[in-house]
Amino acid sequence: MQRPGTEAITISHISVTEAARRLEVSARTVRRLCATGAIPCDRVGRAYLIRQAELPDRRAIIQRDHRHA
After folding, report:
1. What kind of architecture, by CATH, is found in domain 7-68?
2. Which of the 8 DSSP states describes residue 5?
């Protein structure tokens, strides 16, 4: 059972695990990119929820991030 008002968040957002799968990187990398603001996301408690509509453009950010590591 979901909390009232959380339906919109779950439809427009994806989990760190799902974002990692789509971007072909680790969940840890996605969390780090969320923490630095490289991937727009929202926090719900300690969890990051990634804005699904903004995820497709993030592959370039991740590639750039790996080059500077």
Report:
1. Orthogonal Bundle (1.10)
2. T
